[in-house]
């Protein structure tokens, strides 16, 4: 039998997250990341949800246990669609977010359209 080493990456749809309250989203993300998973959220979190996630994560960090999270998102964009302009909607569109354990996920480079990350299986 071949032993596989690696990590689990879950791609989480906007639909799934939209069915959760902000508190449920934060708890879901923390539980998944604490179990060692890398999450890719189709739609990023609101600034309030990101702040809540960071705050809660800080309370859970342990010296020889949970090391916290690494989180990167594309910068938000203003809705410049034709309909958005007609309705004068200037709402920010949240974009894809990558979240994982801080001891496994390291951001190498980030710009407006690409996030380059190194995922380590060594703890």
From TrEMBL:
Which InterPro entries does the entry mention?
Answer: OapB-like
> Where on the tree of life does the source sit, at the highest rank?
Archaea
Name the UniProt record assigns to this protein? DUF2073 domain-containing protein
């Amino acid at each position: 039998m071949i032993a596989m080493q690696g990590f689990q990456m879950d791609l989480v749809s906007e639909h799934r997250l939209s069915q959760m309250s902000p508190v449920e989203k934060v708890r879901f993300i923390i539980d998944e990341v604490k179990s060692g998973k890398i999450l890719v959220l189709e739609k990023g979190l609101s600034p309030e949800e990101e702040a809540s996630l960071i705050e809660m994560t800080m309370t859970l960090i342990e010296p020889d246990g949970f090391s916290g999270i690494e989180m990167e998102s594309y910068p938000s964009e203003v809705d410049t669609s034709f309909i958005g302009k007609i309705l004068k909607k200037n709402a920010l569109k949240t974009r894809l977010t990558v979240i994982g354990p801080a001891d496994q996920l390291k951001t190498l480079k980030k710009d407006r359209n690409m996030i380059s990350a190194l995922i380590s299986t060594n703890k």
